[in-house]
Amino acid sequence: MSSLVETEKLGENPFARLLYYPRVNRAELERRLTELKALEVSAVELAGEKRVFDVHVLGKGCVGIVVVAFRRGEKVALKIRRADASRSEMQQEAKLLEKANSVGVGAMLLGVSDNFLVMQLVEGRLLPEWLDRIRAKTRIRKVLRKVLEQCWSLDCAGLDHGELSHAHKHIIINSVDQPFIVDFETASLCRRTANVTSVCQFLFLSGSVAEKVCGSLGKANREAIIEALRRYKSEKSPSSFSNVLASCGLLDYV
Ligand SMILES: Nc1ncnc2c1ncn2[C@@H]1O[C@H](COP(=O)(O)OP(=O)(O)OP(=O)(O)O)[C@@H](O)[C@H]1O
Ligand SMILES: [Mg+2]
Question: Atom 24 in ligand 1: which residue has the minimum CA distance?
């Protein structure tokens, strides 16, 4: 079920409550409608598996609500800053996403304002749901390898995502098995990078996703992975990264 709502109509309920979630303030709403027009967002499509106030959306987090939108005739993802978000603007997240994009990672940034981030729409499933549906081991290994490669690119770029040890909602796999890491809102160019180590922990060592991966691919060699990560941490190099891929059983899955 989905419905298209033109930007002019977003000031009316129930959509107004999405634009300035969870409360509605007329003046702020008007400001946000003006920002949307400047970003050339012509309509929002209320689609997706999550629901906010009975309206379908792509996702809801602590900072934003993400919906499908139309910009210049194309479908995009629109992240709307929540009224109760701990951030006062979206520009910082945009800057970090742009940095990720520069090394081929993340949904492409298309526009930003104080309250909105416009980016490439990733149509697919979050990694845990994707793992529940896919049985083919080679497909799973290829996708996991791509995730690790993206994390290596982020490590090399000095950009730490910050939430990859708990990435249940931060990796989306599209219909052609391309993974996308989303949400660079808590990323940093100042912290020591830990993307590869965090994502390996998440995918192979602890928690419900690691259990799913082990269930699909067989038991991970924990000792080998821990040792490879220890080496990688002390020396980030192509060879120590290859060693991590090998310990995770992904070296041959390009
Ligand atoms: N570009 C995109 N294309 C499709 N869906 C997306 C996109 N970006 C985000 N989403 C969906 O929206 C959800 C929320 O996005 P995001 O994680 O950026 O919001 P957040 O408020 O920062 O969340 P959190 O509180 O978990 O940090 C994601 O988990 C994902 O399901
Ligand atoms: Mg976030």
Answer: 61
pLDDT at 3: 85
Token pair, residue 123, equals 């149509």
CATH number of 166's domain: 1.10.510
pLDDT value at 2 more than 80: no
pLDDT in tens, 55-73: 899 999 999 999 999 999 9
Residue pair 48/59 in contact (Cβ under 8 Å)? The answer is yes
Residue 253 lies in a domain: no
**161: phi then psi, degrees, rounded to nearest 5:** -65, -45
- Residue range 14-41: mean pLDDT, rounded: 89
Q: Which pLDDT score is estimated for 11?
A: 84
- For residues 127-150, b (16+ Cβ closer than 10 Å) or e, as one string? bbebbeeeeeeeebbebbbbbbbb
| pTM of structure | 0.96
Q: Are residues 96 and 194 in the same domain?
A: no
Counting atoms of ligand 1 from 1, which one is nearest the CA of 119?
1
Pocket (CB within 6 angstroms of ligand 1): 58-59, 61-64, 66, 77, 79, 107, 119-122, 126, 169, 172, 182-183, 185
Query: Do strands 124-126 and 171-174 pair parallel, antiparallel, or not at all (unpaired)?
Result: antiparallel
